[in-house]
Amino acid sequence: MTVPRASASSGRRWRVPVGETFWAFMFLLPWIIGFVVFTAGPMLYSLYISFTDYNVIRPPDLVGLENYETLFNDRRIPRALGNTAFYAALNVPLTMIFSLVLAMILLRVGRAAGFFRTAFYLPTVTPAVAVGTLFLLILSGNGLLNQALSVIGIRGPIWLADPDYVKQGIVIMSLWTLGSTVIIYFAALRNVPTELYEAARIDGANSWQQFRNITVPFISGALFFTLIVNTIASLQIFAEVFTMFFGLTQSGPAQSSALFYVIYLFQRAFEDLDLGYASAMAWLLFVIILIITAIQIRFSRRFVYYEGGR
């Protein structure tokens, strides 16, 4: 509904929205204000201070591209990026595989699915610091994991002290919180038409053929979504690892293997108080995530199936 009003200067008629569009913007206004104040504003300010020498104590001093030049000459940046990439390359596919297996099992448990959905999801809402502290105990030399391995005759490594196993231990910890991915896959699996499986069985298709040609195409949208979300989350892992290696304990050489990009960014920002350089690091990570996401979206056209077509 609109109310016409005459313009005093030109005599033209213009309309002021007072119906659904107006109220839609009114309800969106709190979110818009929050986004501008707490997201867009800080991002633009961090872009500005990435071109400055800023340590909170003194006002920002413009230095041009000096922070970015230092960034590409910092020997710890390749190590931090390499550790983060290695972790993401392990964590993302393992999270997706285990989540899909658990979601398919949930389809077969009947009424108990509600209980197991809650059980799988609860670790997701556990505070990250609590998770990191818990896995300090689980992954220690005499921790629960190595005790379980010893039962079947396997001598487990010292996960938190051996640089060769630190990132693998962190991946094991991250699998603790795959519940949200399980829930997404479970919802997607329930929407696959059951008559397609019946028709496939009549045609003689085995379980693998049904999974490959029916299940995967119909849940490919959910797979694609979780691929992007889990990749972004993996590239920004911080709290659990900081608790395990840089907060409560000092693990010596293991810290080099656990130096992920966001942890190094935190150190430069809040330990060295070099906020200009840390902002430049943040924008480099933003560009990296943007490029990776764009590549994933570009290649998604080949494997994401939509019911109305690809």
Description of the structure:
The structure is a single chain. The protein is mainly alpha-helical and 310 residues long. It has two domains: 2-49, no CATH class; 67-303, Orthogonal Bundle (MetI-like fold), CATH 1.10.3720. It has 14 helices and four strands. The protein has helices at residues 20-49, 66-73, 76-106, 113-121, 128-138, 144-151, 166-174, 179-190, 194-202, 207-235, 239-247, 254-257, 261-271, 275-303; strands spanning 2-6, 13-17, 52-53, 61-62. The strands form two sheets. A two-stranded antiparallel ribbon has the order 1-2. Strands 3-4 form a two-stranded antiparallel ribbon. Strand 1 (2-6) and strand 2 form a beta hairpin. The longest helix has 31 residues, at 76-106. The model is unreliable at 6-11 (pLDDT under 50).
